[in-house]
């Protein structure tokens, strides 16, 4: 791996004065990029982000409507910009103003990582609005606007992993826009966006345009799969005889990691062979799997298990601050992402055999994910409208 800004801190002092490697640096050395699944104006201005780049081997950042909704609701750091904004802007236009400012500033903070890795890392993601999830044309239009407004080579535009989103991915890659495909739960959806990425690169080659400066990640969601499957298993356990209960109980908390391991196997298959080699010779980069939703939702499970079980080369793990801090404190670093893949496949078959459809689960999770982001987006716009009212002269 190229030397990156912030990679110099490789040891920490443990109790008793024993020197030990920084676990986050070890994770980075395994070929996995650590991205922060959070953004707010405070961390961009008070030095926290620079500190995490320096101390936590942080090399990128992701944002989404829920993250921005929390940032805007919990801070007055945006008030000055909102007050100075042009009169007559809609809540949507005001949101784009503040989010593109934050993302641009974050891109500038990660510019050192982007430069030292020669454009392989140091990306900050900005997401199209949930309302365009089922329109390729609207997704492309909004992605172009965000790309142009941020105007940084290390920004990535996030588009949803719907069938229409995949169509948009091909078009955006062909135009030379970095893309992060989000809300991927199903292996089939993952394959669809890998194909879209490859086809977009090929379209660009046919147009005699360079492909060596492009980057893309496929954001495969993890813990939410266990949340949904565990809920269904619990309902079955409540009605099952004792012997069957024990069998069902053993299936809990294992599907998400198994599903992600099959996604990584697909990645290794797709980015090998003659088709990929032809693109690689022209400087194309692989579309890295990005593990999203890696914070543990069930307190009965180890708090860093979704990080520990998906470590390997050419991957990204985007984590909220608490998960990064927990992994630095007690995470175990070992290459795991391509281990026991046959067992992962067998586990998912067993879950199917007891009557839980993985396809049905992943389809529901995509629908729920878009709905959740839409709810956050609606709350964000309503909150902005209320904030503008309170900031205006005579407002309360």
> Using only CA atoms, what is the Rg?
21 Å
End-to-end distance: 54 Å
Number of strands: 10
Low-confidence runs of at least 5 consecutive residues = 1-15
Mean pLDDT: 92
Q: CATH fold name, please?
A: TIM Barrel
Give the topology string: H per helix, E per strand. Answer: EEHEHHEHHHHEHEHEHEHHHHEHEHHH
Q: Strand content of the residues, in percent? A: 5-15%
Q: Quick one: CATH class?
A: Alpha Beta
Characterize the largest beta sheet: strand count, sense, and whether it forms a barrel: 8 strands, parallel, barrel
For the biggest β-sheet, the strand order reads 3-4-5-6-7-8-9-10
Q: Enumerate how many helices there are, as a single number.
A: 18
CATH architecture: Alpha-Beta Barrel
Secondary structure: helix percent: 40-55%
The figure for the number of domains is 1
Structural class: alpha/beta
Which homologous superfamily in CATH is the superfamily? Aldolase class I
Query: Which geometry do the CA atoms define?
Result: globular
